[in-house]
Amino acid sequence: MTAPLRLRIDCDALQANWRTLDRMSGAAACGAAIKADGYGLGAATVAATLAAAGCRDFFVATWDEAAAIAAQRLPLSVLHGVRAEDMAVARALAGIARPVLDTDAQVARWRDAGGGACDVMVDTGMNRLGVSPQAVREGLLDGLTIETLMSHLACADEDSPMNSRQQATFAALAGATGAQRMSLANSAGIALGADYAFDLTRPGLALYGGVPRREFAGEIRPVVTPEAQILQRRTVQAGDTVGYNATWTAPRATEVAIVNLGYADGYLRGFSDRGSAQGGTVPVIGRVSMDLIALDVGAEPTLAEGDWIAIDFALPQASAASGLSQYELLTGLGRRYARLG
């Protein structure tokens, strides 16, 4: 059966965005965060596409994510480290995936198991995952074979003094371990300049069409377009309402299309009366429901039952319209889409 909902993925734009970020990274290598199933696009497709463009460093969150694309034999870093429950798969994927050790206990677990190549996360102020800079200076990582020492910026999408504090804390660890590389910048961090790039950058959002800082405006291309099939076209008479809770009332006889898309597909209720399709000519009317939305198609007289319609989903604009973050818009895309590269 053919899904009445599809996600069109512009692989040329995905590659172009990586090349832009690679250029902006200067002398540093440019990797790719492909966690959360490639930010909702499909990790296998994203990894293959970016590898073809020249990317050689990939980041996933969990060992399940690593195992799902291990057949491509691309170098993977597993950001959430290695729990006791992960050790068997970590051994099985040795040479393909390595843990990003995040806690003192993970460091001890990896060392006691005979170790092997690893990465390490240092907490420079985000107070999320990571070992402390003091513990690193006191020898916590001695004897480990560390490929990349990394940290993560908390406020890179803002002009915050915390950015420079984190950068300085991290830079002070240069030479404190045997790590071959250092890595700090995410997508937004790349725009902060060469001092933040170190040896390797780790973009995520901007690869997929997100614009985390003004410096990327005009540089990053949209990658994702949801397309939904019209299930019914109908005329709603003046004074009649559409959808749950009757939040929209027709000011005049209005041509309405009912489309196979809803919040179960990641098109959330923030788009109610605020979203659009067909380049802004077709507004969403009424409340977004689980599986359906209604569109005012008065400006599109030829659209009919069975036709496909492109939902406006350029991430900065969709974020502003819905009140949702660009990250949520991407990673919330559901599994009911047929994904077309």
Describe, in short, the structure shown.
The chain has helices spanning 11-24, 35-39, 43-53, 63-69, 87-92, 104-112, 133-137, 161-171, 187-190, 315-322, 326-331; strands spanning 5-9, 29-30, 32-33, 58-60, 76-78, 97-101, 117-121, 145-150, 181-183, 200-201, 224-236, 241-242, 248-249, 254-260, 276-277, 282-285, 292-296, 308-310, 338-340. With 341 residues, the protein is an alpha/beta fold. Strand 4, helix 4 (63-69) and strand 5 form a beta-alpha-beta unit.
The mean pLDDT is: 97
Compute the CA-based radius of gyration.
Answer: 23 Å
Oligomer: single chain
Terminal residue distance = 19 Å
Number of helices: 11
Q: What's the main sheet like?
A: 8 strands, mixed
Shape verdict: elongated
Give the topology string: H per helix, E per strand.
EHEEHHEHEHEHEHEHEHEEEEEEEEEHHE
Main structural class: alpha/beta
Unreliable stretches covering 5 or more consecutive residues: none
Give the DSSP E fraction (strand runs of 2 or more residues): 15-25%
Task: Report on this structure.
This protein has 341 residues and is α/β, with parallel strands linked by helices. It is 25% helix and 23% strand. It is built from eleven helices and 19 strands. The protein has helices spanning 11-24, 35-39, 43-53, 63-69, 87-92, 104-112, 133-137, 161-171, 187-190, 315-322, 326-331; strands at 5-9, 29-30, 32-33, 58-60, 76-78, 97-101, 117-121, 145-150, 181-183, 200-201, 224-236, 241-242, 248-249, 254-260, 276-277, 282-285, 292-296, 308-310, 338-340. The strands form four sheets. Strands 1, 11, 14, 15, 16, 17, 18 and 19 form an eight-stranded mixed sheet that branches. A seven-stranded parallel sheet has the order 3-4-5-6-7-8-9. A two-stranded parallel ribbon has the order 2-10. Strand 5 (76-78), helix 5 and strand 6 (97-101) form a beta-alpha-beta unit. The chain is elongated, with a radius of gyration of 23 Å. The chain starts with a strand and ends with a strand. The model has no long low-confidence stretch (mean pLDDT 97).
